[in-house]
Amino acid sequence: MSVSSHSSSATQPGKAPKQARGVQRVAALLEAAASLFAEKGVEAATMTEIAKRAGAPIGSLYQFFPSKAAVAMALLERYAARLEESLGALRDAAPGLSPEALAAGLLAVLRAHEQDRALAPSLLEACADLVGQARPFRARSRALVEAVLLQARPPLAPGRAAAMAMPVLLMMKQVPKAGQEEELVAELTRMLGMYLRAG
User: Fold this and answer.
1) pTM for this entry
2) CB-based contacts of 71: which residues, under 8 Å, 6+ apart?
3) Mean pLDDT, range 35-60, rounded to an integer
4) What is the distance of C-alpha 162 from the center of its chain?
5) Which domains are present in the chain?
6) What is the pLDDT of residue 5?
7) Which of these, 79, 50, 80, 44, lies nearest to 64 by C-alpha position?
8) Residue 55, by phi and psi: left (phi above 0), alpha (psi -120 to 50) or beta?
């Protein structure tokens, strides 16, 4: 069954874990789902496969996630939380960084979350028709990058951080996978650094 064929209520998470064991089980279920989605795609992976890979009973999976769309949304939220934490740390460090160092930091954030980043488009696609998750996720990402840019030194002209956030995000998305050309990463860092300096 297609993820998009579920109702929007099925995208909401089920029961929240209350004990440490439940929290660990949810983490294992999400890790299993992420690896299966990366291997097979969201549509092809099944709830049974997710539970099996996590070593959990299928009932446990449905207890926490009533549908595959709910799993996809939980993975998106996990990625957003990880990005928020990483970009928050970069925002706090930004006043002491040169534009080039800030550019390197922005690109490093995406490289650190490479698996999540690679999976995000298919997760967004799986959820977009249901509850419009693509727009809020992208808006949240843009707001996080804007918050980092607001701390840039030298300060950007008024309104420039908001205007630059989306182009910066687009440049960040060009970061190659680990092991690919380091020269390309260096060039992207230089380009982004020049863009930030010109701000």
Assistant:
1) 0.80
2) 29, 30, 33, 47, 50, 61, 65
3) 96
4) 20
5) 3-68 (1.10.10.60), 73-198 (1.10.357)
6) 39
7) 50
8) left
